[in-house]
Amino acid sequence: MRVVVVGATGNVGTALLRALHAEPRVTSLLGIARRLPDRAAEPYRHAGWAAVDVGSEDLDETVVARLADQFGGADAVVHLAWLIQPNRERELLRRTNVEGTRRVAEAAALAGVPHLVVASSVGAYSPADDDAPRQEDWPTAGVRTSHYGVDKAAQERVLDEFETVHPDVVVARLRPALVFQADAAPSIARSFLGPLVPVRLLGRGRLPVLPLPAGLRMQAVHADDVADAYRRVVVERAAGAFNVAAGDVLGGADLARAVDHGRLVEVPSAAVRGALAAAYGAHTVRADPGWLDLALSAPVLDTARIRTELGWEPRRTAAEAVEDLLDGLAVGQGMGSAPLRPARPRPPGASPEGRSTGPRIPDSMDHYLFGLYLSDHFTGATAGLERLELMTRTSEDTPFYAELAEATEQLRAERELYRDLLATLGVPRRRHRQAAAWLGEKAGRLKLNGRIADRSPMTPVLEAELMRSAVLGKIGGWQTLREHAADVGLDAAQLDELVAQARRQIDLFDRYHAWARERAFRTAAWER
To answer: Are the C-beta atoms of residues 29 and 21 closer than 8 Å to each other?
Structure first.
């Protein structure tokens, strides 16, 4: 079988790659994502990759054509792509989540794919006021005050319409409970918490008490078990809706036990909602009150259908899935993709567990000058990342989009590495410099390059030259750190790898420059 997974770098997508790689009947695997992962890392190295943004602002037919090109010859397309944040940008979320699903479905039909499997959710269901398990025929109107529930219900209507128009395509939709794994812990924290929340204290045994809204009960399932459900649906070409959840339903006392102490403080749900609304309004947390409404009203899932028809059984309980998540939060665990990136990158000289092995600026070096040097390179990475993100967004219809998307993630990780190194060495970040670099990069975009109404064909040439120069400067930074690695206590081998990676980035910008300059100055008549 040839299987294509759209949204293959997230929580469920990463687990599904592991499951499909281990499935003998799957002989070809293609991952599609807006931002490509580290393709040398597990489990991403076992798939081919293509960069397509299902929520692109391009015309529907353009995105559908891009997807259809990738879907050719597939026995099944699994659609997992979904944006949780930024949840204040409703137009972006709906374009990606609802219209993105429509685009994937239409592309599957255009490419002749016989089986479409889509990630729905318990959030698609209408509210329930009791704990009676609901089967897949429970209404899917969502929770009105939850943007997630509203969009999941709209996604269900997209699939209903698609099945009517394309009865030749077998459509399956999975509706899992909350999906947890240790590797997704930082991603979940970034989506729902905020920078002021002490995430590491959420690890097991670290909280003195656990305050929860009264009446909360929750179902969960481990990501590997959800992936096994998707695998079974794919290889059996199953149709229809399937609830997926572990057998235990967790109440407040169960969640308190999961964090190792059992000390639960129940708070009236109205008070919790008011506090959450205030925190969300103050931008101190990322979850809006709709998430609480969804948690308190979602039905309990009856999973008899997938157990009976496909033989699925969870290998972990809901409590074990929660414990795995908490363990991941405690250490900032993650994977080699943008959605699942660790909470903090490992700086040169730190152990894999994140414990410092002693990076410091020795007395033989000028603390101020060396710190200023590091801060300036962090500033340069800030401006370079802004520019490269713009280049990537405007290059979707070029042969270089996938490579630029990958380079963007590499630069984002490098910037975080510098941030962590500054913190480890106790060097101030000099935020005014980063702000000035950010503003300078934005101001540079005002240069019209001879065009007002649209993007100038000369702009890619200049951007490639700018980024190539920036990467050369970055190489100098890594080489300087390499020179002083022994004195500062840095990992010389890791710095050598960063230099090698930067040289590959220069090769990319050289090839992009050659492609752009060949086209930049031709007249329309000459091009014809």
So the answer is: yes
| Beta bridge partner(s), residue 213 | 267
Which residues pair with residue 250 across a beta bridge?
Answer: 218
* Model confidence, pTM: 0.75
Nearest Cα neighbor of 359 from 348, 370, 367, 373 is: 348
Angle (CA) 286 290 293, round 5°? 130
Phi-psi region of 73 (alpha: psi -120 to 50; beta: other; left: phi over 0): left
Q: Do residues 299 and 125 make contact, with C-beta atoms less than 8 angstroms apart?
A: yes
Strands 217-218 and 250-251, by their bridges, are antiparallel
State in Å, rounded, how far the first CA of the chain is from the last one: 42
Q: What is the largest CA-CA distance in the chain?
A: 76
What token pair was written down for 388? 């490269």
Sign of CA dihedral 175, 109, 11, 16: positive
Please choose, from the candidates 11, 54, 17, 70, the residue with its C-alpha nearest in 3D space to the C-alpha of residue 39. Answer: 17
Q: What percent of the chain has pLDDT over 70?
A: 88
What does the mean pLDDT of the chain come to? Answer: 87
Beta strand residue intervals within 234-356, DSSP E? 240-244, 250-251, 264-267
Give the whole-angstrom CA distance, residue 246 versus residue 527: 60
The whole-angstrom separation of Cα 101 and Cα 93 is 12
Name residues of the chain where pLDDT drops below 70.
194-207, 260-262, 343-358, 429-455, 523-528
pLDDT, position 437: 53
Could you read off the pLDDT of 37-60 as tens digits, one per residue? 888 889 999 999 998 999 988 899
Place of tokens 């809006």: 288
Strand spans (E) along 55-183: 76-79, 115-119, 170-176, 178-180
- Summarised one tens digit per residue, pLDDT across range 293-338 is 999 999 999 999 999 999 999 999 999 999 999 888 877 788 888 7
Task: List, in sequence order, every beta strand (DSSP E) within 134-216.
Answer: 170-176, 178-180, 210-213
H or E segment and range at residue 103: helix 100-110
